[in-house]
Design goal:
Layout (H helix, E strand, L loop, with lengths): L1 H15 L16 E12 L4 E3 L9 E10 L4 E10 L3 E5 L13 E2 L8 E4 L2 E10 L2 E5 L8 E9 L2 E12 L4 E10 L6 E2 L3
Antiparallel strand pairs: 1-12, 2-3, 3-4, 4-8, 5-7, 5-10, 6-13, 8-9, 10-11, 11-12
Organism: Pinibacter soli
Protein name: Lipoprotein
């Protein structure tokens, strides 16, 4: 009988002590971020919206619109743009365009080829071209859904990288602001959407 109990105990111990895999979240080296929920804020023509990403009480970036007339070419432009301030930056290329980043793209001191960090910038992300014989659209962001605008904020000699998630709806002619984030630690590379 004692032999039977020892065998049963050994069997229970052997079957009960299986090694299992941990369902713990993977460890990452991603920097801590300060997130701002923008709740799909719509910026339509003739309106604007400002963001304070680092929560210091001052607007860091603005989204706005402008009507520009060209009497020579006999056309109007409804422009939708992002504005950075003196201590905030957008990535801009030689054509005055800003890149459209996808989730996971890196944002840091080494920008995509052809782009540079510029402060006090006023960059058209999309524009409606209105002519006598019809309309058309131009701009990197004209048909974008849930993409990322890279940004950076300067404080002294430190740079804080971040992103703004946005869409552009050509049907309703609106910029849709979803959410934004900026790194809590300076001079560290971040991932769009991370």
């Amino acid at each position: 009988m004692q032999w039977y109990l020892c065998a049963l105990t050994a069997l229970l111990l052997a079957t009960g002590c299986k090694k299992t895999t941990c369902e713990c979240p993977p460890k990452t080296d991603d920097p801590k971020m300060e997130y701002t929920e923008l709740n799909d804020k719509a910026v339509g023509f003739n309106s604007s919206y400002s963001l304070d990403l680092n929560k210091d009480g001052e607007a860091d970036f603005s989204f706005s619109t402008l009507l520009v007339g060209d009497p020579v070419l006999r056309r109007d432009y409804r422009q939708y743009y992002i504005v950075s301030k003196f201590y905030t930056n957008c990535l801009v290329n030689g054509n005055e365009e800003t890149p459209v980043l996808q989730k996971g793209d890196k944002i840091g001191s080494l920008p995509p080829e052809g782009f540079h960090w510029y402060n006090a910038s006023h960059v058209v992300i999309a524009q409606k071209i209105i002519e006598e014989n019809g309309t058309s659209w131009s701009g990197n962001w004209k048909q974008v859904a849930h993409a990322y605008q890279p940004v950076s904020i300067l404080k002294g000699d430190k740079t804080y990288y971040g992103w703004i998630e946005l869409s552009f709806d050509m049907q309703s002619e609106k910029i849709i602001l979803h959410r934004a984030a900026v790194a809590k630690d300076p001079n560290v590379e971040v991932k769009a959407g991370g």
